[in-house]
Task: structure prediction
Amino acid sequence: MYNLLVTAGEGAWDESSYTLDLSRFLEHTEEVPKVRFSALDEVAIAALQQLPTLFAYEKGNDASARVGRIKTLQRRGRDIRITYEFNHAISPIEPKRLEELAWELEINDYEMNRTHWSVKEADLLDVLRVANLLGENVSIPASFRFSRATVINACDKGLSRIMWGASEQDQARSPLPNYR
Result:
């Protein structure tokens, strides 16, 4: 699982922080992660901060994508402000190469044409490893090593709140998985 942040802002990822309109959060995200993270509460924020993050630019911008992590996340009104850092052990990814990996990274058609933040279920670091973009001696920081089960367990409280009050029959019929 990973965060994908896409911006049209030239040089935006050269700064130390980025502000995104809340309406763009979780666009192009499948339903299960959308439910897990949409509350943007403490549990969701903590889980989002643990995911590796791909910082990319919209099509038409020749700047390379970078891999890193979200350090802080603050919500104010209709805005989300993040601070982030890149993993300098992972080389920048050229736009053409990113386009070639779109299927493996679960990047949808036309997704790179709009500024947004999505959460993908693909394993970003594994895709980059298979594509020989990590190099042999790259050591992934421990903060980047979280299995899908770890993220699901970290977000379970949020899912429980969504399902709170529903009968067992309603929960059984729900399209949302029960991870307890």
User: Anything to note?
Assistant: Residues 159-171, 173-180 have pLDDT under 50 and may be disordered. Helices lie at 31-37, 42-50, 95-100, 124-130, 148-163, 168-173.
